Amino acid sequence: MGGDSGPEVTVPALDAAARARPELRFEVHGVADRIEGLLARLPALRGRIEVLHTDKVIDGDAKPAQAMRRGRGASMWNAVEAVAAGRAVAAVSAGNTGALMAISRLQLRMLGALDRPALVANWPTARGRSAVLDVGANLVCDAERLVEFAVMGAAFHHASRGAGRPTVGLLNVGVETEKGLEAVKAADQILRAGGFEFDYIGFVEGDDIAKGAADVIVTDGFSGNVALKTGEGLARYFRDQLREAFTGSPLARLGALLAAPGLRRMSARMNAVSGGPFLGLNGVVVKSHGGADATGFANAVFLAADLASSGFLDELGRNLKPRCEEAAS
Amino acid sequence: MGGDSGPEVTVPALDAAARARPELRFEVHGVADRIEGLLARLPALRGRIEVLHTDKVIDGDAKPAQAMRRGRGASMWNAVEAVAAGRAVAAVSAGNTGALMAISRLQLRMLGALDRPALVANWPTARGRSAVLDVGANLVCDAERLVEFAVMGAAFHHASRGAGRPTVGLLNVGVETEKGLEAVKAADQILRAGGFEFDYIGFVEGDDIAKGAADVIVTDGFSGNVALKTGEGLARYFRDQLREAFTGSPLARLGALLAAPGLRRMSARMNAVSGGPFLGLNGVVVKSHGGADATGFANAVFLAADLASSGFLDELGRNLKPRCEEAAS
Fold first, then answer.
1. B192 in contact with A, Cβ within 8 Å
2. CA distances from B141 to A219, A223, B189 (A)
């Protein structure tokens, strides 16, 4: 029921996902009449979808605490419960982010010593995509937390982009080891010691993100959120400036027309993939952007399927557990 | 002597500055032969420039501590000393940033309770320019420090962009008052209480920077540096993508030619003004970008002149002193 358009977007997205991946089956939570009305024209979903009715929905502006206290029985709650009960391997929602995070923590619990899930941004770069985390959930991070982000980002990279040892960089204000916040310098020491399923490349700076200097870029949730939103704002500014440059005169408009294929490729590459997983939960939950269209929501479903089928949670368990026991001993 | 090209850039820049501002006079520190060789062809500087010889120069890769211990008598040292001695109202250098900051702190001292100068970025926005600070000098900031940045950013805005009460925003991960780092929330409370020579507009997010949501955007040096460098990296990525879009086919190349005037205007607008002042010193010191051309270095000279002639230091003294006494009592 989530997102700006509800089932009118999410149900056709499931149809597209069903056609692309014959192994997928769906349990859908929401207003049954509305959902079943859409199914009539979507034959690929027949026999592969179960609609579980609820007319309780969590508002887009509900506070996380409200959602936890009063959310039981809502469509979002029931979708996450399907994962907690083992009926589903992953939950996907385009609804209220804070509510989804709170309900997921409550029902699925966190892995190891983590407190809150990390949010990961799938950042377009000169070399493809990099995973940047945390982009807003954990504002203050000690060294251990940053190391956990490195482990989770690497597992995410494995699961979503296949084989190969990912490279991991730690975001800092300089590449010299004497610079930076204490927590960042301490995390650098732990990561340098090695023993991980990724290659640590050391400190990176803000301008290394767009270069694709590492597959995974680790930072605290405050700086990560600032970087992500600054980038989004700048991308919008570029697009506006470009539109202005191309509509300034009839000749410029003709120029835009001639260069259109290249400009479209560029625009497609610069769009961040909308939404992403909550990393660190004891289960797979993917948040799709509220404004996503059917293609965007289908991409979130594919990502959820990839995470669930790739041993992502096993890799996390393998790499997070020992460290937490170490810290506890 | 600083910057990638030394006097071959800085001396012609002074000539341009001298022609634009008849009231300016210059004291230039460096290798006299090299500088005087350039003056022969620059008549506007005649009678308005004094060349003080030194062949000691601070290397581009010298550490700040080295520069402080062994910098006495170097061109950069002597330029700052001219301000400390009251012979000059401002110093401008295109040399080593860390060395210039260390030498400036040592000779000029900080205003009030400040520990290190703040670096300000002159960020291009949809509405002109915004001052973003701190972009790298003070990594960890308490609430009082963030409030001082607000005061300094506002004074900088007054001095460099003329009359009018500037608006100030505090960078955060959301606009709701319950979100964010403790220091940021505490600074918000102090700024809300008012009594400043600017209008505080509350929390802003990363994407508000490019919108020009406030004249001054305040954040700690870690997040500010990450935001600035992320933005620089993205701008480079965007330019590369645009070049690719416009060279993909002969038609695209023709398109680029037709849209060239608009694209050039856009590019000029997107270039950040290179360099900026060190805010919080008991004197005016402006750092020009090492790679600046004569126009860029002349802009740094104009900025220094504006700061020195506008009552900038008085405004800082007026707004910083009382708070420090308050804090001490």
1. no
2. 18, 14, 15
